Amino acid sequence: MTIHAAARVLARSDEAGVATLTLNNPARRNSLSEAMLAELGQELAAIAADPGVRAVVIAAAGPVFSAGHDLKELTARRADADRGRAYFAEIMNRCAAVMQAIVRLPQPVIAEVQGVATAAGCQLVASCDLAVAASTAKFCTPGVTIGLFCSTPMVALSRNVAPKHAMEMLLTGDMVGAEEAQRIGLVNRVVAQERLGEETAALARRLASRSALTLRTGKEAFYRQREMALPDAYAYAAAVMVENMLARDAEEGIGAFLDKREPRWEDR
């Protein structure tokens, strides 16, 4: 295992092609502060360019996965001449860039949720490709209770959860348990707290064993086609599949299946 020097609020470790980014500021409830967003952005950019990383896990230290934006940090800027307008816009745009970086990342990303994920913390979970939650984990978008509708978390939430369920979370701010989060599509799996790391690692290793080219192709196509009209989506997906069929890994994978042997991926 390679362990990178711990960042101030984010830690990274790498093992067997899986990079784990751990939100590491439990004293501030792993809030998506300026520092956290900056370090997440930097690590995601580095991972995107690293062919040695085949899957990513986003985890957190302490009892809270992430409480979302750092409200103290935001409130302090109300003293600015523009009452914080420019700073608020900068932070929201920076957060949106991080969430989109997760979606655009060539590698699949798994959220490992050990505790409470609220507001932009819930947005972070929804932005990941997959999510494994401890049975004690909870989720909510509580902005409405403090007069600040969770509009940016809504973007990721509404792309994962059915509209009625998303609206209920956004309009009430109520906490949703792990089992309910799985039922409505926010998380994939719910496991016992003591098995969370093991289950997430097993899933990450399984993804890392696939052709990196195939996963990259499929992930990009998934997010692009779902924003298209049905005929356009089929036309686009068909073109992607043709190119995928011509790739070396598809030739190898199909040959290995027919020969009843394990494939040898070249990621091309």
Q: Output the CATH topology of the largest domain.
A: 2-enoyl-CoA Hydratase, Chain A, domain 1
CA distance, first residue to last residue? 26 Å
Strand content: 15-25%
> What Rg is obtained from the alpha carbons, in whole angstroms?
19 Å
> What overall form do the CA principal axes indicate?
globular
CATH architectural grouping of the largest domain:
Alpha-Beta Complex
- Enumerate the strands of the largest sheet in spatial order, edge to edge or round the barrel: 1-2-3-4-6-8-11
CATH C-level of the largest domain: Alpha Beta
The H-level CATH homologous superfamily of the largest domain, spelled out, is: 2-enoyl-CoA Hydratase, Chain A, domain 1
Low-pLDDT regions: 1-6
Total domain units? 2
Task: Round the mean pLDDT to the nearest integer and report it.
Answer: 95
Output the number of helix runs: 11
* Strand tally: 11
Architecture overview:
It contains 11 helices and 11 strands. With 268 residues, the protein is an alpha/beta fold. It has 2 domains: 2-208, 2-enoyl-CoA Hydratase, Chain A, domain 1 (Alpha-Beta Complex); 212-259, Lyase 2-enoyl-coa Hydratase, Chain  A, domain 2 (Orthogonal Bundle). Belongs to the enoyl-CoA hydratase/isomerase family. It comes from Labrys wisconsinensis.
